[in-house]
Amino acid sequence: MAYQNVTTSLARLMMFSLVTFSLLLVQASAVRADPVLCLEKAKTYFAEIDQLLSKEKNWIMPFIELNERYSPLEDCDTDLLLQEAIQSRFARPITYNPHAKEYLVRFWSNDVEVEFAYSALKKKSDTHSAGWVNK
Predict the structure, then answer these.
(1) How far is 118 from 82, CA to CA, in rounded Å?
(2) Distance CA 36, CA 43 (A)
(3) How far, rounded to the nearest angstrom, does the alpha carbon of residue 16 sit from its chain's CA centroid?
(4) One domain for residues 106 and 48
(5) What burial class does residue 53 get, using C-beta atoms within 10 Å of its C-beta: 0-12 exposed, 13-18 middle, 19+ buried?
(6) pLDDT tens-digit series, residues 1-55
(7) pTM for the whole thing?
(8) Both 17 and 60 in a single domain?
(9) Are residues 40 and 97 located together in one domain of the fold?
(10) Count of the separate structural domains present in the chain
(11) Rounded distance between C-alpha atoms, residue 71 and residue 51, angstroms
Protein backbone atom coordinates (compact mmCIF):
# COMPACT_ATOMS: atom_id res chain seq x y z
CA MET A 1 0.00 0.00 0.00
CA ALA A 2 2.80 2.44 0.93
CA TYR A 3 4.64 1.49 -2.27
CA GLN A 4 1.53 2.26 -4.34
CA ASN A 5 1.16 5.69 -2.64
CA VAL A 6 4.79 6.56 -3.36
CA THR A 7 4.44 5.44 -6.98
CA THR A 8 1.26 7.48 -7.41
CA SER A 9 2.91 10.55 -5.84
CA LEU A 10 5.95 10.22 -8.09
CA ALA A 11 3.74 9.83 -11.17
CA ARG A 12 1.77 12.95 -10.22
CA LEU A 13 4.98 14.87 -9.57
CA MET A 14 6.41 13.82 -12.92
CA MET A 15 3.20 14.78 -14.71
CA PHE A 16 3.14 18.18 -12.96
CA SER A 17 6.80 18.75 -13.86
CA LEU A 18 6.17 17.82 -17.49
CA VAL A 19 3.18 20.16 -17.76
CA THR A 20 5.10 23.00 -16.09
CA PHE A 21 8.10 22.49 -18.37
CA SER A 22 5.82 22.44 -21.44
CA LEU A 23 4.19 25.71 -20.39
CA LEU A 24 7.60 27.32 -19.88
CA LEU A 25 8.69 26.23 -23.36
CA VAL A 26 5.53 27.69 -24.90
CA GLN A 27 6.07 30.97 -23.06
CA ALA A 28 9.73 31.16 -24.08
CA SER A 29 8.97 30.56 -27.75
CA ALA A 30 6.09 33.05 -27.66
CA VAL A 31 8.37 35.73 -26.21
CA ARG A 32 11.06 35.01 -28.80
CA ALA A 33 8.64 34.97 -31.71
CA ASP A 34 7.13 38.40 -31.19
CA PRO A 35 7.48 40.61 -34.27
CA VAL A 36 6.10 43.60 -32.36
CA LEU A 37 8.85 43.42 -29.73
CA CYS A 38 11.46 43.01 -32.44
CA LEU A 39 10.19 46.05 -34.32
CA GLU A 40 10.18 48.17 -31.16
CA LYS A 41 13.75 47.09 -30.46
CA ALA A 42 14.72 47.94 -34.05
CA LYS A 43 13.08 51.38 -33.87
CA THR A 44 15.06 52.20 -30.74
CA TYR A 45 18.25 50.88 -32.34
CA PHE A 46 17.76 53.02 -35.46
CA ALA A 47 16.98 56.12 -33.38
CA GLU A 48 20.17 55.63 -31.39
CA ILE A 49 22.16 55.12 -34.59
CA ASP A 50 20.78 58.44 -35.87
CA GLN A 51 21.72 60.21 -32.63
CA LEU A 52 25.26 58.86 -32.67
CA LEU A 53 25.85 59.49 -36.37
CA SER A 54 24.71 63.08 -36.01
CA LYS A 55 27.18 63.89 -33.23
CA GLU A 56 29.98 61.31 -32.96
CA LYS A 57 32.90 61.85 -35.33
CA ASN A 58 36.02 60.77 -33.50
CA TRP A 59 35.16 57.71 -31.44
CA ILE A 60 33.96 54.35 -32.77
CA MET A 61 33.34 52.64 -29.40
CA PRO A 62 29.79 53.99 -28.87
CA PHE A 63 28.75 52.39 -32.17
CA ILE A 64 30.30 49.06 -31.25
CA GLU A 65 28.57 49.13 -27.85
CA LEU A 66 25.28 50.03 -29.54
CA ASN A 67 25.60 47.03 -31.86
CA GLU A 68 26.36 44.75 -28.92
CA ARG A 69 23.24 45.96 -27.08
CA TYR A 70 20.88 45.46 -30.00
CA SER A 71 22.32 42.42 -31.74
CA PRO A 72 20.67 40.26 -32.85
CA LEU A 73 17.31 41.50 -34.03
CA GLU A 74 15.15 38.37 -34.11
CA ASP A 75 11.74 37.46 -35.49
CA CYS A 76 10.99 40.82 -37.09
CA ASP A 77 8.56 41.17 -39.93
CA THR A 78 11.16 41.73 -42.64
CA ASP A 79 9.16 44.30 -44.61
CA LEU A 80 8.36 46.37 -41.53
CA LEU A 81 11.96 46.20 -40.35
CA LEU A 82 13.25 47.47 -43.69
CA GLN A 83 10.60 50.19 -43.87
CA GLU A 84 11.64 51.38 -40.43
CA ALA A 85 15.34 51.31 -41.35
CA ILE A 86 14.90 53.55 -44.40
CA GLN A 87 13.21 56.17 -42.21
CA SER A 88 16.65 57.05 -40.84
CA ARG A 89 18.21 60.16 -42.32
CA PHE A 90 21.50 58.21 -42.46
CA ALA A 91 20.05 55.15 -44.24
CA ARG A 92 21.68 54.05 -47.47
CA PRO A 93 20.12 51.87 -50.15
CA ILE A 94 19.43 48.39 -48.82
CA THR A 95 20.99 45.64 -50.88
CA TYR A 96 19.46 42.19 -51.28
CA ASN A 97 21.11 38.85 -51.94
CA PRO A 98 18.36 36.68 -53.49
CA HIS A 99 20.35 33.45 -53.14
CA ALA A 100 20.82 33.86 -49.39
CA LYS A 101 17.55 35.82 -48.97
CA GLU A 102 19.55 38.32 -46.94
CA TYR A 103 19.40 42.09 -46.75
CA LEU A 104 22.34 44.38 -46.02
CA VAL A 105 21.15 47.43 -44.09
CA ARG A 106 23.61 50.33 -43.90
CA PHE A 107 23.70 53.75 -42.27
CA TRP A 108 26.50 56.26 -42.55
CA SER A 109 27.56 59.80 -41.95
CA ASN A 110 30.62 61.47 -43.41
CA ASP A 111 32.72 59.73 -40.75
CA VAL A 112 31.16 56.46 -39.57
CA GLU A 113 29.33 53.53 -41.18
CA VAL A 114 27.05 51.12 -39.26
CA GLU A 115 25.61 48.03 -40.89
CA PHE A 116 24.03 44.65 -40.32
CA ALA A 117 22.66 41.79 -42.37
CA TYR A 118 19.11 40.50 -41.87
CA SER A 119 18.24 37.00 -43.02
CA ALA A 120 14.63 36.68 -44.17
CA LEU A 121 14.93 32.90 -43.86
CA LYS A 122 16.28 32.83 -40.31
CA LYS A 123 14.43 36.02 -39.30
CA LYS A 124 17.58 37.13 -37.53
CA SER A 125 20.24 39.78 -37.94
CA ASP A 126 23.95 39.15 -37.84
CA THR A 127 27.31 40.71 -38.69
CA HIS A 128 26.48 43.99 -36.97
CA SER A 129 29.49 46.21 -37.55
CA ALA A 130 30.72 49.77 -37.28
CA GLY A 131 33.72 51.39 -38.87
CA TRP A 132 35.23 54.53 -40.29
CA VAL A 133 34.09 55.72 -43.70
CA ASN A 134 36.93 55.64 -46.21
CA LYS A 135 37.45 59.17 -47.44
Answers:
(1) 9
(2) 11
(3) 34
(4) yes
(5) buried
(6) 555 654 555 455 455 444 445 555 445 444 456 999 999 999 999 999 999 999 9
(7) 0.74
(8) no
(9) yes
(10) 2
(11) 18
